[in-house]
Amino acid sequence: xxxxxxxxxxxxxxxxxxxxxxxxxxxxxxxxxxxxxxxxxxxxxxxxxxxxxxxxxxxxxxxxxxxxxxxxxxxxxxxxxxxxxxxxxxxxxxxxxxxxxxxxxxxxxxxxxxxxxxxxxxxxxxxxxxxxxxxxxxx
Length: 139
What we know:
22% strand, CBS-domain, alpha/beta, 3-stranded mixed β-sheet
């Protein structure tokens, strides 16, 4: 498959087609220890942080290495001190190429997927890479 054909083919795939519906959210006062346990139990790499019951930020497994461990935060640190704000979002009906561009430009690996002003899932750089590999293999 040529580069133009691959790009055209990928542009037809929507974020909703590859996103994960596994969503876990937490209150800003939740401790980073509790967040780690939620990630472990839920088998997820990101937790949405809500403020006033609205999605406001995100904490990822990578944040544990980059922010929490390297800065020696105690395990009882409230998640709002280390989460990333504002929450970066993409519409469920956008092309995965738009998602890839957004992740690249913002230097992030996860986007909250929004539909009708509601977070409905998460799309990750791993989702994108897996889709690219599938397309390459299946033509």
